[in-house]
Amino acid sequence: NGKQVRGHTLAWHSQQPGWMQSLSGSSLRQAMIDHINGVMGHYKGKIAQWDVVNEAFEDGSSGARRDSNLQRTGNDWIEVAFRTARAADPAAKLCYNDYNIENWTWAKTQAVYAMVRDFKQRGVPIDCVGFQSHFNSGSPYNSNFRTTLQSFAALGVDVAITELDIQGASATTYANVTNDCLAVPRCLGITVWGVRDTDSWRSGDTPLLFNGDGSKKPAYTAVLNALNGGSTTPPSDAGQIKGVGSGRCLDVPNASTTDGTQLQLWDCNNGSNQQWTYTAAGELRVYGNKCLDAAGTGNGAKVQIYSCWGGDNQKWRLNSDGSIVGVQSGLCLDAVGAGTANGTLIQLYSCSNGSNQRWTRT
């Protein structure tokens, strides 16, 4: 059907078969070479891009190579993998792929950049870099992602967004990422890491473009609009949060902006005090600068608004079953006493899958 196929992945420290894990030194090095030749030879001319090496750098601030059995065969193992791959299929684009390299200021990003620059200077055959782009509260989207893509492209390689998922599926962030790729001529494309939330490796983060029932999420429309050349301003994904049991909305009483104001259920009216935006950091924001905030970590803890400051008590997981779970407490957003009336207060409570703990975003 004329579709291009990406190959993932040829050399990786993880997911190795047992027999390969038992090898070391020159035996392991030769096994890697044989594997690259065998797989690429089998699919020669059919795979447009190969992730030749995956996740070879350590997390954190060191910028070091990951300690793995492949790394212990010698620091040149990545170069050998790319040279082997070029000989095996000269027509395929050869990529290095990794996660947590999207933020331009991070040491891991700079370490991969330095490797690619060195490879290009020395003629090591590398054609592209894949940015996995698993955005979540621990590795949030940053507006400097476009700078990262542009900087790598300036080295003379293509770039690709290879495993995209975004905690909470923020429409704004999905649009931003799509526009970042569109703004860089050498961005080959975007691969989303799954279809429905229920199929995701992080299903609890509801990170994809489709709900578990296959229905489209606001993020789907945001991506489509970006691809179709819509507004350059990412669409707002602010909306109401409606209780399944009550049919009423998460509401800041009397449209208060005072820190510590406990939330309640109230008839949905599209007021600004009922408009919640889920951010890439996992916050639920109202008025733009106030966050859904847990005043404690135990059953019965008050759920309130508070000025956003980045604490884990202000971060939430929006799950596919409709529950909203506090990252710090692990407890669910709960209508007190399973109440459904106007004025019912909101608290944290142990998750029970009750209708007073399930919510929809409208």
UniProtKB/TrEMBL annotation:
- Which organism does this record belong to? Streptomyces himalayensis subsp. aureolus
Every GH10 domain range:
1-226
**Quick check: keyword Signal in the entry?**
yes
In the UniProt record, the signal sequence range is: none
Question: Per the UniProt record, which EC number(s) apply here?
Answer: 3.2.1.8
Q: Name one GO molecular function term.
A: endo-1,4-beta-xylanase activity
Q: Which CDD domains does the UniProt record give?
A: beta-trefoil_Ricin_XLN-like (cd23418)
**Residues at the active site:** E163 (nucleophile)
What is stated as this protein's family in its record?
Answer: Belongs to the glycosyl hydrolase 10 (cellulase F) family.
Superkingdom to which the source organism belongs: Bacteria
Offer one example of a GO biological process linked to this entry. Answer: xylan catabolic process
Spell out the protein name for this chain.
Answer: Beta-xylanase
* UniProt keyword list: Carbohydrate metabolism, Glycosidase, Hydrolase, Polysaccharide degradation, Signal, Xylan degradation
Keyword set includes 4Fe-4S = no
Q: Return the Gene3D superfamilies for the record.
A: 2.80.10.50, Glycosidases (3.20.20.80)
Pfam families from the entry? Glyco_hydro_10, Ricin_B_lectin
Tell me the enzyme class.
hydrolase
